[in-house]
Amino acid sequence: MRDLQRARRGLARHPGARDRRADPGRRARALPGLQAVGRPEYIGFVDAHWYPLSYAGTTGAPGNPTAEQAIQTVDRIPAEYAKIKTALQAQGLPAAKIIVGETNVSYRATDTACTPVGALFAAGDALEWLSLGAYSVDWWTMNGYGNTGTTCSHPDEGMFTSNSKPAEESPYLGYLLAGALAQPGATLTTLTLSPSAVSPPVLAFQSVLPNGKSAVLLINTSTSTPAQPTFNSSLSGELTAVRYQAANQNTFATKTTTWSSPAAVVAKGMSLPAESITLLKES
Q1: CA-CA distance, 127 to 133, in Å (whole number)?
Q2: Are the C-beta atoms of 46 and 31 separated by less than 8 Å?
Q3: Which pTM value belongs to this model?
């Protein structure tokens, strides 16, 4: 469990910091370098920048990862978080907070900003880091000037198009759904799914909100196979369900559908389309 005070504010921020090229070894070199500061008591946090991939352009093109491979890089986050915590412990900084100051599928512009990949990765990325204990998570970047008109048709890094009237791109939709769980004062956990065979491709999170109500978010990261897991949660009463799925999208990949369902029905098993996000929240 983890207290998520200020987590929603972290999700909402879009840093305007200078873009730096990805360097897988930078974190490993920088953390030991904390010794050079000489006053570790003044170090309250570290700023991690996480880009699991380094490709540009079209997902699935020759030499580039597939959509499923890109989405499922979020599975690497627990190991990355553990590495950072171990390094902080070794430097005598066990209480230092971890801020994910920049993150995206890649540090280069890709088409994921215009496809469901961006939404699924953004939601899973944010909730994985926060559920492990990260203080905040910031997407890079708010708008990357890949799309300057009224369509989302070019590789981009942003959450919005760079138009006089910006339009939402798919990563924004992922953060919007994740924000239903990541609220100030909420407690975020992961959920165990049954059967265990569905666990690898399905990410599951639960948040107990400050008002006592609960919300659950399920992400089917498989781009080809539906899933129907069951899970134990604190959901009760009438639920509002919001679904985002690749098979039912608009040109910006930001379309959702909403319906109502009793928690007792959900407890019997939840059908999850391939490449989808399902949010369940108490009404």
Answers
A1: 10
A2: yes
A3: 0.87
Helix (H) or strand (E) holding 121: helix 116-132
pLDDT above 70 coverage of the chain, percent: 84
The radius of gyration computed from the CA coordinates of the chain, to the nearest angstrom, equals: 19
Q: Identify whether the C-beta of residue 141 lies closer than 8 Å to the C-beta of residue 109.
A: no
Distance CA 174, CA 185 (A): 21
How confident is the prediction for the chain on average, in pLDDT?
87
Q: Say if residue 195 is preceded by a cis peptide, omega within 30 of 0.
A: yes
Structural domain spans, the chain: 2-178, 187-282
187-282 is classed in which CATH architecture? Sandwich (2.60)
In sequence order, the 6+-apart residues with CB closer than 8 A to the CB of 215 are 180, 181, 206, 207, 209, 279, 280, 281, 282
Mention every residue, 6+ apart, whose C-beta is less than 8 A from residue 59.
Answer: 65, 66, 67, 70, 110, 111, 112, 115, 117
- Is 254 in contact with 170 (CB distance < 8 Å)? yes
C-alpha span between 205 and 183 (Å, rounded): 13
Number of other residues whose CB lies within 10 A of the CB of residue 253: 22
Q: What is the pLDDT of residues 211-246, one digit of tens each?
A: 999 999 999 999 999 999 999 999 999 999 999 999
pLDDT at residue 6, as a whole number: 36
Q: Tell me the per-residue pLDDT of 173-205, one tens digit each, with 9 for 90 and over.
A: 999 999 999 999 999 999 999 877 666 699 999
In whole angstroms, give the CA distance from residue 128 to residue 256: 22
Q: How far apart are CA 63 and CA 136, in angstroms?
A: 33
Closest CA to 275 of 223, 226, 200, 198: 223
Range name among 54-63, 125-134, 137-146 with the lowest pLDDT average: 137-146
Phi/psi of residue 71, each to 5°?
-65, -45
How remote is the C-alpha of 245 from its chain's centroid?
16
Reading the block at residue 235, the tokens are 């959901």
Model confidence at 25: pLDDT above 60: no
